[in-house]
Amino acid sequence: MTFELSLEEGTFLVKLAREAVTEYLKSRKVISVPPDTNKKLLTKTGVFVTLNTVRSGRHTLRGCIGFPMPTHPLAQAVIESSIESATQDPRFPKVTSKELKDIVMELSILTPPELVEVQNPSDYPKHIKVGRDGLIIERGFMRGLLLPQVPVEWGWDEEEFLCQCCVKAGLTPEMWCVKGTKVHKFQAIIFEETSPSGAVVRKEL
């Protein structure tokens, strides 16, 4: 990964995500990128914002939306993704202001997706690595993305990771073995709050 971020920069982005969600839920206003934002954080970069509810030490997914491609300046993408994660994830009802005291923010800043090229689809597991890579699987109009932390959290190996990404795309699990299915991989720098509104750390997989 050539694009690197310091803990200070990651902390700035995580706090920006929380501020964006807090303000939007309170006033329905979308905050602007702060004028003193480091120019590095205005580079166009893919990012996903994940919201997790924390109760009794357990994390439960509450929303996750983002930009897989580097189409927006990073700080702006964080603002938009955090608001959409809280209000537009179709799997969940909208987050309420009262819930924020139990929610931790997690940011995954992505490298541009890279097409995995193989002679035989059965070779895909050899070209990805759990704990390093995220996956995007495409077939026709069907598309699914899983972040690098997902297979680690669920204990999947590379084959199961490919299968589950197919399921995320609305395909049958074995479709990664069928010619014509495209597999992309990417990496991520991950920052997360240790507790709601708490200190920010870099997450190692």
Describe this protein's structure.
This protein is an alpha+beta fold and 205 residues long. 25% of the residues lie in helices and 27% in strands. It is built from four helices and nine strands; from the N terminus they run αββαββββααβββ. The strands form two sheets. A five-stranded antiparallel β-sheet has the order 2-1-3-8-9, with helices on one face. α1 packs across α2. The chain is globular. The model has no long low-confidence stretch (mean pLDDT 95).
Average pLDDT across residues? 95
Task: Please report the total strand number as a whole number.
Answer: 9
Architecture of the largest domain, CATH level 2? 2-Layer Sandwich
Determine the structural class based on helices, strands and strand pairing.
alpha+beta
What profile does the largest beta sheet have?
A: 5 strands, antiparallel
In percent, how much strand structure appears in the residues?
Answer: 25-35%
The CATH topology annotation of the largest domain reads as Glycoprotein, Type 4 Pilin
According to CATH, what is the class of the largest domain? Alpha Beta
Rg on CA atoms, Å:
17 Å
Q: Uncertain regions: pLDDT < 50 for 5+ in a row?
A: none
CATH superfamily of the largest domain: Hypothetical protein ph0010, domain 1
What order do the SSEs take from the amino end to the carboxyl end, as H and E?
A: HEEHEEEEHHEEE
First-to-last CA distance: 15 Å
Reading side by side through the largest sheet, how are the strands ordered? 2-1-3-8-9
